[in-house]
TrEMBL record:
Occurrences of domain EAL (ranges): 24-277
Protein name: EAL domain-containing protein
Superkingdom in the source lineage: Bacteria
Native source organism of the sequence: Gordonibacter faecis
Residue span relative to the full protein: 395 to 685 of 830
């Protein structure tokens, strides 16, 4: 009967919702266990000069070194944690690890480049990020210019709290990056309200520029506008030589992407950094850095 079929559908729908909830709950429990076990590790992706290819900064990206599943990418657990408000416990761990690593490099006599970490909007509702970062810098004896903060574009939308927090972070001397710029709809308008230092152009921008002259012009216009506003730009998802040449030609000084380096483990990064001439401290992203 019709009713029978209908009833089955409802049953199926409820089942799949329950399964989803169960798997989210499972993820949350697993994450708590994994945090205690220190299963989360940082990978590092260099930010490079488009002119010289040299490293001017590093983005810290979290990975889950799962005992059975191997290396798990953030795409499969960060959104779950964001939805449930647990992302702050992971981010606290990641930010601490990033600072601890910076301290270790300095103690070994290495000249460190700035490291950028990601902040989720949900972090603001769980912790006071300003005092958290201040405490971290104090604990590890680091200068503000060594830690840069990436906040995804959509996190600013319709959220006073984010704008206010950015203002406070800026007052404390932190460098703020707007991540995934151009991925939303209100990108340009947002720039008048949010006082960021660096725009990270979403990789979709670069992909579209490959496809049409018009999209190329838009990217070029964004770079000019950024210059007028005294903003620096990093193009994300730079994968080819052609893209690097194009970025250079429109005056985009920095890029991050597979063309230069994929995100890598601490061990791989350290081996890379011992090579002569891969790091450019003069072209370093933070103008305040003292050499
Ligand atoms: P994101 O912050 O925009 O990071 C850039 C992402 O693009 C990274 O993915 C990176 O591996 C990838 N990528 C870099 N270059 C290329 C390229 O040339 N081509 C392509 N196709 N992709 C490239 P990943 O590491 O999987 O991270 C995904 C997202 O997860 C990040 O996007 C960020 O939003 C979030 N995330 C990562 N680590 C953390 C963290 O510690 N805390 C929080 N809250 N979010 C994080
Ligand atoms: Mg980022
Ligand atoms: Mg992002
Ligand atoms: Mg991004």
């Amino acid at each position: 009967s019709v009713k029978g079929i209908y009833g089955k559908r409802i049953a199926w729908y409820e089942n799949s919702m329950t399964e989803e909830l169960e798997s989210e709950t499972k993820t949350l429990l697993e994450v708590q266990r994994a945090l205690a076990n220190r299963e989360f590790v940082l990978y590092w992706q260099p930010q490079c000069s488009t002119r010289t290819g040299r490293i001017v900064g590093l983005e810290a990206l979290v990975r889950w070194q799962h005992p059975r599943r191997g290396l798990v990418m953030p795409g499969s657990f960060v959104p779950v944690l964001e939805r449930n408000g647990f992302i702050a416990s992971l981010d606290l761990y990641v930010w601490d690890e990033a600072c601890r690593q910076l301290r270790a490099w300095i103690d070994r006599g290495e000249q460190p480049v700035p490291v950028s970490v990601n902040i989720s909007r949900a972090d603001l509702y769980a912790i006071d990020v300003v005092s958290t970062f201040e405490e971290l810098l104090q604990r590890y004896g680091l200068d503000h210019h060594l830690l840069e903060l990436e906040i995804t574009e959509s996190a600013y939308a319709e959220d006073e709290r984010m704008t206010t927090t950015v203002e406070r972070l800026k007052e404390h001397g932190f460098t703020i990056l707007m991540d995934d710029f151009g991925s939303g709809y209100s990108s340009l308008n947002m720039l008048k309200d949010v006082n960021v230092d660096i725009l990270k152009i979403d990789m979709g921008f670069l992909n579209r520029a490959n496809e049409s002259k018009r999209s190329e012009s838009i990217l070029e216009a964004v770079v000019s506008m950024a210059r007028l506003m005294d903003l620096r730009i990093i193009a994300e998802g730079t994968e080819t030589k052609e893209q690097v040449d194009f970025l250079q030609s429109i005056g985009c000084d920095y890029a991050q992407g597979y063309y230069f380096y994929r995100p890598m483990s601490t061990e791989t990064l350290e081996a890379l950094l011992t090579q002569e001439g891969v790091v450019d401290l003069r072209g370093v992203l933070s103008p305040t850095m003292e050499l």
